[in-house]
What does this fold into?
Amino acid sequence: MIKSTADIFSDFKGTEDDLIPVLQKVQENFGYLSQKSMMDVGRFLRIPTSKVWATATFYTQFRLKPIGEKHIMLCRGTACHVKGAPRILDEIELKLGITEGETSSDGKYSLESVACIGACGLAPCILINEDVKGRLTPKLVNKLFEDKERRDQDVE
Amino acid sequence: MIHEKRVLLKNLGKINPASIDDYEKAGGYKAIRKALDMNHLLVIDEMMNSSLRGRGGAGFSTGLKNKFTSESCLRCEQKYLICNADEGEPGTFKDRIIMENDPHLLIEGMLIAAYAIGASKAFVYLRGEYYRSIDMVTLAIKTAREKGYIGSKIFGSDFSVDIEIRLGAGSYLCGEELTLLESMEGKRGYPRIKPPFPAEKGLFGYPTLVNNVETLATIPVIIAEGSEWYSKLGIPESPGTKIFTISGDVANPGFFEVEMGTTLRDIVYGLAGGIKDGKRLKAMLLGGAAGTFVDETVLDTPMAYDSLKEKGAVLGSGAIMVLDETRSILCMTQSILEFFKHECCGKCVPCRVGTDRLVRMIKDINRGNENRFTLEEMVDEAGYIAKTSLCPLGQSPIMPLASLQRYFNDQF
Ligand SMILES: Cc1cc2nc3c(=O)[nH]c(=O)nc-3n(C[C@H](O)[C@H](O)[C@H](O)COP(=O)(O)O)c2cc1C
Ligand code: FES
It folds into this structure.
């Protein structure tokens, strides 16, 4: 359920160190940080919007645009790299028709990369929303994103 | 045949990590009761006597760090403890294993450390992508609070402390303790100038102790079993046990807790089952991206802080990445340098420009052009970055590059 920014703020004391937790909650609710929500946050914490913006744009977690239903994060850590992450990236890009950093036009998928997610034993791996998919091969990627009906289905 | 020595991970798979009762039945929350009956200085003495060294990578004496923070600014009304759970070093996942399988062990360690330094507020700074760890630690804090183990006057003592979770927002550099403090204060993750050290002026200007998850999870063991028992584990130079995480081309990648001083050979060939598919070993990367490459001549060196140093290598976070004969060292080096370029915060010009230059140099080498850059030039460049940038990130690229010069010069 989408709350208003005021609802979100009511859980916080409103000091400056709340900035990142507040932004995280706002993003969790709206999927991204809109210009308006950042202005609201600035007003709530009594800091200039420029400071909110400065922090929001520093951290890779924060997005200034909406993302797709399925948020795919490809691990570009060293273990995954060795085990063929670049090929996995190529395959996903080919399959979904988007490149890293983009969202598909139907709003279904977004593709980003992330540093090592601590699942190196399963390298190469990706995160789809909060699930880790490991030991990927181009073939498995193909299966994972096969067709609209089946693409929600998990692979081992 | 080498076996694991599970001291920190003794409950792994034996208790339900979501159940505080399970943890207590296995002897949990006894060490904190024991600690609260001791003077806090004696608790610190126990840490000193155990000779425990920080497991976050730098290997600094945990007892000393506690002592400094405890003695710093006696008039300050506030001190903080921060558990560094931002685990971001590529190839490292030991903290995740602890948090997912025995979160109360970490909470208990935090309570003891908070008591030792006199902190009334503690934070767990947890990697934002560690969804399961976040769930487990959140639940552990909730149940411990309900039982009165976190809060005011815990276990019938005069000591009060609260623990809160803060989530990292996706920056490797924020795992560095001073940058972590900036981030906790809501700012961009730019490093701070040292000194002052966190023990003097940390979070919001108050004395702060920052310790790694594995370090904190060791403290209940030391208090429960005694520093004498603990310091007999491992080797004198680096006592205790360590969780190593091994990935890459081995038959059984995963995590193993062994005594310090175990050789790489025992870990790679004994526990991890050797090189996959009968191939030959080419290289191992120890300690993640900010780590060092070594070859098979290091296999019989004890895994410990100082003995690895003699070999131009580091233990770091305990990550071991294994490469078989088919892998390209050059390609790995490029991946590591791209990582540093990506994670550079941009504050120091030499690091911002230099990490980008290093990527261009390795790409040039990889293309095999005539008149291409040499490894020596890259080491020089990385040396300049190290000397002229503020924080340890700028001081990192030199580590893998210098180790390549020592062990794999022929590959360039
Ligand atoms: C770039 C960089 C990243 C770091 N990331 C982490 C980390 O994710 N977790 C951690 O415990 N220490 C990390 N450290 C080390 C911390 O700065 C600090 O030394 C450590 O948290 C101290 O804890 P310890 O004494 O228990 O080892 C990092 C250091 C640097 C330079
Ligand atoms: S390198 Fe991909 S999970 Fe660690």
